[in-house]
Every structure is written in structure tokens, then in C-alpha cells.
Amino acid sequence: MNALLLVAHGSRKQSSNDEVAALAQKIASLNNSFDLIGHGFLELTDPKAFDALSDLVEKGAKQITVLPYFLAAGHHVVSDFPEIMEKAENEFPEVEIKLLPHLGAMEGMAQWIVELASA
Amino acid sequence: MNALLLVAHGSRKQSSNDEVAALAQKIASLNNSFDLIGHGFLELTDPKAFDALSDLVEKGAKQITVLPYFLAAGHHVVSDFPEIMEKAENEFPEVEIKLLPHLGAMEGMAQWIVELASA
Lengths: 119, 119
Prior knowledge:
The structure is a homodimer of 119-residue chains.
Chain A: E1 2-8, H1 14-29, E2 36-41, H2 49-58, E3 63-68, H3 75-91, E4 96-99, H4 109-118
Parallel strand pairs in A: 1-2, 1-3, 3-4
């Protein structure tokens, strides 16, 4: 099974965390190539990213694509994600885990913004 | 003239601010319906959002579309943008200024993520 894991910073503001959960749910409702969609956070709220990833493994995920839901490469993107990846690869060597660039660095962001803003 | 203004939070980390400037530049290099592309920040670095907007007006912008480059609706999105809009509408009544939803709330984010993550 293929899984997508969205990982956001996490906020003290519950509505911000709810936005992430709602986005994961919306992705799950779309026609997509992932059997499972998860979401997790680095700080301030649960589920934490590693727990969310473990949960996907428990549900049978054999490939997990991790998307850092961040616009800029700050400390979290630069340091936290490599750590999570290393821990996950050690703990789940049988699972193929792929880390995407953070959202703000994804190829196509500029084009997408042009389309959004022109609509 | 039509302008698009990207407004991000601003970071102590110069490379994060540079990412925003580079994105604005990339948008400008694409085929798009905007004559001018600007970028500004709410905090920690320059140009500040209102100054960036004023600069677009000086350059001749008659319509300005403001995109909050934020993934979640925290305090900044909820409070700062309406303030900036009010100030701008008072100062530049002849300019048509449109505030988009913050990036994370834009229709199509879920679909876009599916495409990115599946690529």
C-alpha cells in the first residue's frame, strides 16, 4: 500500500491544526494514487510526525511519501525532517520512505500561484 | 496595470526571505496576466507589505491582487491582512485591491498536492 504523509509545524491555535487535518481528508476524498493519507505535526500538537508515520506502517503502508507542509526552509525543514527520516528508516527498514522537498520549494509553485491569482 | 503582491511572514533567516523573493521573480518570468509582481513581508524583514504595495501603486498599478503566502490562518492572516487592506484602501482609493484567501485555503490545494506527490 502507498501512503502520503503531510507534515505541518503544528500550532497553538487549534483551528490551524484542523486546517491540516481537513486538507488531509480532502486529499483522501480525491481520486489519487495513495491508499492511505496521513497527517502529523512537528510541535505543539498531536499526532506527532513519527507517530503518524508509524500509524501508516501499522495500517500496511509499504511506500510512504512525506510532504513537509512548509513554505520556507527554516530550521524545521533543514533539521527535523532528516532526523525523522533517519529514525523511520532505522525502525521500518522494510518500508520505502521518500521525502519530498518542502511545499514552497516544489517545482510548479510559481505556475500554480499564477493560476490561482488569475482565476 | 495589473499587479500581484505576494505577502509572506518574514524570517530572521535570510535564506527564507530570499525564497519568497525568488518565487516572486519566478512568477514574473512566467507567462502571466500581471504586469507587475511584488513581494513583501509582515515582520522581521523588508520590504514591509504596505511599502511593497505602495511601490506597486507608484509604478502604476491600478489593480492589485494580494496573496497571503501562508498555509494556515493564524493571527497574521486573520488580523494583519484586513488592517493592511483598510490602510491601503484609505490611502489609494483609486486602486482596486483584492485580497485572496491565504494560500493554504485556496481551492485546489488538495488537488495540487496530489499531483505533486504523485509525480
